[in-house]
Amino acid sequence: MTPVRRWCIVAVGLALVIGTPLTLRAMPAQDEDVSASDLLARVEASTNHAYSGYVESLGTLELPVADRFTDVGALFGERTRMRVWWQSADEWRVDKVLATGETDLFHTDWGYTTTWDYEKNEVTQYRDPSIRLPRTSDLLPPEVVRRLLSDVRGDELTRLAPRRVAGRDALGLRLSPAAPQSSIDHVDAWVDPGTGDYTIASLLDGSSAAGTRLRGILAIRVAMILRTSLSERGDPVAPPTLTLFEDMDPALQQTRTLAAAERQFRHRVVETTIPLRNILMLP
Fold it and tell me: For residue 243, is pLDDT > 90?
């Protein structure tokens, strides 16, 4: 292969790497025939929807500088970078990423919150009071939207055009408070519809809806049950059941019941997530 051809291949590869994200951003978002009130109902029902990801919030509210409550001023007046693992409203973890470390929040279903400061190497555990100051978990987009859209009337809501957010089609929703005392003119939110039939038949039926659902699949989670080849003597060494995807919603979990003979073998559940990079090239 000549040097010219090698450099041409490099140029084409570089163009694909740079051009693919730009092409995805330019793709028009797919809308759904959903009313504003129905979209609000989806938002309200998403409290226990599990997810994980990276979040950046930017606040421009200037609060007075004081010796106490400096963290509150930083939350609403600076850029905050966070990693989040959300299982439900009762179980979650949010890491505030700093230039020299991180500050982590862990919340458990028995009502305790644990704070770990990496730089100070300090751990604090406490039970949430009925009234508390804002914290990093309150800046997560789902939490912000649910708070802003709570206790609103149907006539205050209108649909907006959809947008592509993080590679997904998101439906637009606008809140325009009717109360004259309100200091907020409007709130715009874009919501992941989070619905669709993901069976093999519906994904491969050739329809435009199937193409939209295919483009929304960015990764596949796989679980495997591994078993030793040697049978153990004596008491069973394996539990009666094995649960796959334990950290997901109970409706998505899978349970495998082991027969008495199978319990004489040692078992192990292995799970992994496979990013579907080539899915980005779908039309």
Answer: yes
